[in-house]
Amino acid sequence: MRFRTFCRLLALVPLALGLAPVGTALGAAAELGVRHRIDVTVLAEPDAPILSRLKGAKGELSFTVRLSANSNESKFFGMLRPSFPDLVVPDGPGKPLVQQTKLWEEDVCHQRRGLPKVTVTQLGGHFAEGEGRIEISAINRHIGLLVPPDELTPGIKLDKGNDGFGVFYAFRAQSRNSRLNVDLKIYPIDCFL
Known about the structure:
Low-confidence stretches: none
Mean pLDDT: 86
Number of domains: 1
């Protein structure tokens, strides 16, 4: 009986040695992590008041983005407040008010744990001067408060895409009356832990 058990165990040794490189390869794949980059672009809808009345006018925009990106290796929660002075209203639809700009990027590679949670909570600014001046003040709807005059609707999911920086997931925040779109692209960048 002992001899049979010994022979069976001896027969398993070559099998175990053959699988050892596979285990090493699987372990190496588990070391692949990710870090994220978030870019922003601001566009005006074709029927936006600034496009119909203020082509070529100068102005500025700023907005607030709430960002939560947490993992074991990296923790970030906060409000980002980018500002874009000296903007010029384009002469037609389809041209951005704010070109694609890096908003935030992680320094640390971490385990894959999903995308950061990103929400545009406020959009403000103005275009032109004098009587033709247009003020923009769009905010999110809050429970228990009246709907804002220029409501900002965040979290509109756009199609996944690929550009010069790589694969991205896109989300849009859109203001109801001023008809501006704040597009956020989240790039997952592969890295080694």
